[in-house]
Design a protein that fits this description.
Layout: E1 2-6, H1 13-23, E2 27-32, E3 35-39, H2 46-53, E4 57-61, E5 72-75, H3 86-92, H4 97-108, H5 114-123, H6 131-139, H7 147-156, E6 160-168, H8 169-179, E7 183-192, E8 195-201, H9 207-220, E9 228-232, H10 238-242, E10 246-250, H11 254-257, E11 262-264, H12 271-275
Parallel strand pairs: 5-6, 5-9, 6-7, 9-10, 10-11
Antiparallel strand pairs: 1-3, 1-4, 2-3, 7-8
Length: about 280
């Protein structure tokens, strides 16, 4: 296997030497400014602990596996493509951020059903002016580090992108247009007379719906499951991640890290490019 090591900082020669010793790698190749490939490596129980202790991200990757082998990357939005949970920031406009954030955390840890959690959270937003959504987009929404680098590389290689979110179309539609994403799906907030009603229109896009959209778009593109990468951070991403050939837990909850193919705990989204270089 190739052991890919990357970080947001310089990686010392001593740390690389220690990982070579643990994995019995035969040689080291630099694949990015803070990323290295340790060739001929063997998995070792000491690698995860050493990497986490020194804020390094790692992945054991088959030498034959490269980004060019994939045709679709599916991304969650909140806390994955972007740095915020949009509903928490909307709630802040009502002075209810702490209440809504607590429910969000329960859902992302998998402690309560996502659809139930969304209904409870959206109900708290009843009466909020529609303009608050635009304020969140303009003032608070930021892409996570490395997002634009990753998307540029995917586009250059002809890899399609799907943004699928348990959040809201108000944000996914704007991000799709801004970033040139190929597909985007999310929930729709009901707005009457310029105010949120506290309701979601139609069926809630939950964990199963995320998986369904991944498979729908994959089929439309005539791809096999192993040609799909799925990225997420919360428990409601697990079903879609299970449908992909490779899954990335991005700065994710423990339940997601434990089930993903790879985990990025420190690096940005461009870590995907280094991982499969």
């Amino acid at each position: 296997m190739n052991l890919i090591i990357q970080a947001v900082h310089d990686i010392s020669a001593a740390h690389l030497d220690r990982l070579v010793s643990l994995s019995l790698a035969s040689r080291i190749e630099q694949v990015g400014s803070h990323a290295y490939r340790l060739c001929g490596a063997k998995p070792h129980d000491g690698v995860p602990m050493f990497c986490y202790e020194h804020q390094l991200d790692y992945g054991f990757v088959r030498p034959s596996l490269h980004l060019a082998d994939f045709g679709l990357v599916v991304m969650d939005m909140d806390s994955t493509l972007i740095s915020i949970e949009c509903i928490d920031e909307i709630a802040d406009m009502q002075g209810l951020k702490s209440q809504v954030s607590a429910i969000t955390e329960e859902a992302m840890r998998g402690e309560i059903d996502f659809a139930e959690s969304l209904r409870r959270r959206v109900a708290l937003l009843e009466g909020l002016e529609e303009g608050a959504l635009q304020r969140v987009y303009d003032e608070r929404l930021q892409l996570n580090p490395g997002a634009e680098l990753m998307l540029a590389e995917l586009k250059k290689r002809g890899i399609k992108t799907l943004l699928v979110s348990g959040g809201f179309t108000f944000f996914t539609q704007r991000l799709q247009a801004r970033l040139g994403l190929d597909f985007a799906h999310a929930n729709t907030l009901e707005i009457i007379d310029g105010k949120l009603t506290g309701q979601v229109l139609g069926d809630i896009l939950d964990a199963q719906a995320k998986a369904n959209w991944l498979n729908h778009v994959r089929t439309e593109l005539n791809l096999h499951p192993e040609q799909v990468i799925a990225m997420g951070d919360g428990a409601n991403d697990l079903k879609m991640m299970a449908q992909a050939g490779a899954s990335i837990a991005y700065h994710a909850k423990p339940i997601v890290r434990s089930q993903a193919s790879f985990a990025f705990n420190f690096v940005g989204l461009n870590g995907l490019v280094n991982l499969l270089a």
